[in-house]
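Figure 2 data, in text form.
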Amino acid sequence: MITLTIDRQKIQVEPGTSILEAARLHGIYIPTMCYMKELNEIGACRICLVEVEGTRTLQPSCVYPAAQGMVVHTNSPRVIKARKMVLELYLSNHPFECLTCVRNQRCELQQLAERYHVRHLMVQGELKRYPIDDQSPAMIREPSKCIVCRRCVRVCKDVQEIGIYQIVERGFDAVASPAFKKSLAETPCIYCGQCLQLCPTAAIHEKEDLETVWKALSNPKKHVVIQTAPSIRGTLGEEFGMPIGSLVTGKMVAAIRRLGFDKVFDDCFGADIVCIEEGAELIHRLENNGPLPQFTSCCPGWLRFCLLFYPELIP
């Protein structure tokens, strides 16, 4: 173990631990925009800069290893000034659409700007102007809001092993995009949603159908029915601060009815039927030397993955 001091706290960590991880292990906050442990440790965003006594410049804590006797300051005036400058540079060419943005109040860039009291920009740069890609049935890309953190690139390539995204262009024009700036609809994207879960801004976000639903609910000539998966009633409570696994079936149905839906159905009966049919299919294959193994999934992402990358498995 090595001993170092972070913000006047003496802590011990394993050799090779980064300053960022050492701080997080002991509840010390250091902001990041690009970092993902063991996946995207590139020090690109420069938000995680810290002051290390004995070094001339500020250091990116996510890639700078902790050392014996090291003294680190994460919130010195010099560090705060540098972080504010980095944020101002990000914002200098970022679209100012916060009030109408789908990630308003959930955007990491916006939250950091608020945390560090960025009230005005010292520099006003040229705004990026890229067309919005809304051709995908599940996701929308707004490349003009991309900060080139590379999270989507890494999770798509190294976790999902699809590799849709890469950094195209260079310098000011650099942006995370499918090759040749193609639309997502033109790629073998399986719409798993991992990229949009990790995107710190709204460069990638969900395609919503809320307006379509509200129009249907407000139409007196339509009898509107909703059908939910069994997992919803067991996970929805987490969004309202309830313990994990809390069943909220009654509350959920009451809320849905108050929204104006005429009928509420649950997939549970259909799910049971599917399990029975799948079991019968497997028994039939085993007894009649049918093709094995048998795969099954209700996940459209999994099905698309199989269709695009392993079509030989489809009967």
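Caption note: Residues 107 and 201 are 5 Å apart (CA to CA).
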